[in-house]
Design a protein that fits this description.
By secondary structure, this protein is mainly α. It has one domain (10-148). The protein has 6 helices and 2 strands; from the N terminus they run αααααββα. Strands 1-2 form a two-stranded antiparallel ribbon. β1 and β2 form a beta hairpin. α2 (33-48) packs antiparallel against α3, α2 runs antiparallel to α5 and α5 runs antiparallel to α6. It is globular. The protein starts with 9 loop residues before the first helix and ends with a helix.
Length: 149
């Protein structure tokens, strides 16, 4: 397991590790079974590659998310609170983390990379190649906007 910087509180660590799983849950929700399986494989591949991520903060979050995936998923299964609301909380946490702005930006870029990888994996075939669903394109735009704020 990759460790977080020592100055990050346990509650902030919990939020940071939940973000990759929440993004996955948001993107897989509107997908059909076949697309969802491809998206799960892409998500798993990103989690397995945590030790090769250039951002130490994002690497720690991915490693932690892989270890606690079932717990995070179960916490949001059947909840009224949408995962996107929790991601807004994560965005607030990012603004007050006791790390450099470069580290925060690398973490944000990592989340966008993850979202793109999961969305592309769920793309369906069309006459023009693989096409990301309208729902996932809208979710990607929402996520990029949230993370840019």
């Amino acid at each position: 397991m990759i460790n977080y910087p020592k100055q990050i509180s346990k509650s902030d660590q919990e939020r940071l590790r939940a973000a990759p799983v929440l993004i996955f849950l948001l993107l897989v929700a509107p997908s059909g079974q076949e697309a969802a399986e491809r998206q799960k494989q892409a998500f798993s591949a990103v989690l397995r590659g945590a030790d090769q991520v250039p951002s130490p903060l994002f690497a720690a979050a991915l490693s932690d998310a892989a270890e606690h995936y079932e717990m995070i998923r179960a916490a949001f299964a059947g909840r009224v609170l949408d995962p996107s609301v929790e991601l807004l909380v994560v965005c607030g946490v990012l603004k007050r983390l006791p790390v450099t702005s470069d580290e925060v930006e690398e973490y944000r870029q990592g989340l966008v990379f993850l979202a793109d990888a999961v969305a592309r994996a769920g793309a369906r075939r069309s006459w023009f190649g693989r096409r990301v669903s309208r729902e996932n394109r809208e979710l990607l735009a929402l996520l990029r906007g949230m993370l840019a704020a």
